Amino acid sequence: MTHGDYEIVPYHHDHMDQTVKVLKLLWGFDREYRISRLKWKHYENPYSDFPHGIVALYKGKVVGFRGYSPMRWEVNGKEFKTLTAGDTVVGTNHRMKGLSIAMGQAANEFLDYKLLINFTAGSTSMPGYTKLGFGKLLEKSYWIRGPSEGDKQLEGDFDNVKILKNPDLKEICSFISRTKESDKISPIRNEKYFQWKIANTKDNYKFFSYKNKGYVVFSTQPKSQNGYVVDYAVEDVESLDNILRYIIRKKPFNFTMVFNYGVCDKLSQVLKGLNFKPSNMNWHLLIRPVKRDFVKEDWIIEGLNTRDIGNWNMRAICSDDA
Ligand SMILES: CC(C)(COP(=O)(O)OP(=O)(O)OC[C@H]1O[C@@H](n2cnc3c(N)ncnc32)[C@H](O)[C@@H]1OP(=O)(O)O)[C@@H](O)C(=O)NCCC(=O)NCCS
């Protein structure tokens, strides 16, 4: 498709070098890092065989890129696929010409996928997503807890909390299937998915388990001493409570944060009991059916309204930023 003087086409491997150049405006000056991140994120995703991206070409050269990460979900024994929208960048000389919108519209041709989800829209990208027809799924916030002296008195069954340096992913996946709520839309996390996520070029993952009854995964970012809960599966509240108590007591992180998506009733009770405080970000989780012109029915999957966060068992590990 053309957009004024520009061509908007699916990403092809031949675009790699020029895409890496444009991504400097999003991922910084380290070229090796940009190459490794593009490869990891868009070539090595276990749920697709090729990078799902759109590029904007000006006189045959890449001046804009949008990356989409495939993700698989299941509900009531049925599977469907979504694309996580992210990594939008347009060269400085080509901005405010509608290129991010034109590339976003082209993604509506990925018809193997049901929905586009965006976990990371902020003030610069929100106007574009609104224009592209994305709807709000949830106002994003996080529960946060800072270090505090009184925590030394905090009690818990710390001996049974284990830091899993080499987590047994088979066992982790068996917790997931044992504790699954089948009537909610849940991300498919299998061994390959975890192996891929652990190889993330930006975040580090730390796995904690309690008495073989559940696990919690934290992500940390370089130069940050904060830990984010990005995934968990537990048989009971006690397991969650003890892992979080252990974290508070041993302080592997400065602030401990939990995004509000994927916080079920039992986790929110634990967080309240441990003095985590909700904190607003003023950002949203956004969602849109994959289709150029969609109708109301396109939001419905397996009889569930996908615009109702109550129908999702969302996990922050699915975000392209975790
Ligand atoms: C954000 C970015 C991708 C926008 O690309 P673009 O091609 O210039 O955007 P478009 O011309 O398609 O404009 C889309 C809408 O976003 C708005 N917009 C564009 N840049 C904006 C900015 N910096 N702040 C706020 N709104 C902005 C436009 O006004 C337009 O809305 P409108 O039609 O209601 O006026 C581009 O500025 C960029 O590459 N920024 C650096 C990387 C980045 O921050 N990416 C987003 C995070 S993934």
For the sheet with most strands, the description reads:
14 strands, mixed
Look at the structure and name the CATH superfamily of the largest domain. Gcn5-related N-acetyltransferase (GNAT)
The end-to-end span amounts to 32 Å
Pairing-aware structural class of the strands and helices? alpha+beta
Can you tell me the number of structural domains? 2
Question: Roughly what is the average pLDDT, rounded to an integer?
Answer: 93
Number of helices: 9
Hetero groups in this structure are: coenzyme A
**Spans with pLDDT under 50 lasting ≥5 residues?**
none
Form type: globular
CATH class of the largest domain: Alpha Beta
Write the layout of secondary structure elements.
Blueprint: E1 2-3, E2 6-10, H1 16-22, H2 24-27, H3 31-43, E3 52-58, E4 61-75, E5 78-90, H4 99-106, E6 115-118, H5 126-131, E7 135-145, E8 161-164, H6 169-178, E9 186-187, H7 191-198, E10 204-210, E11 214-220, E12 227-234, H8 237-250, E13 256-259, H9 265-273, E14 277-289, E15 300-301, E16 304-305
Parallel strand pairs: 5-6, 12-13
Antiparallel strand pairs: 1-2, 2-3, 3-4, 4-5, 4-9, 6-14, 7-13, 7-14, 8-10, 10-11, 11-12, 15-16
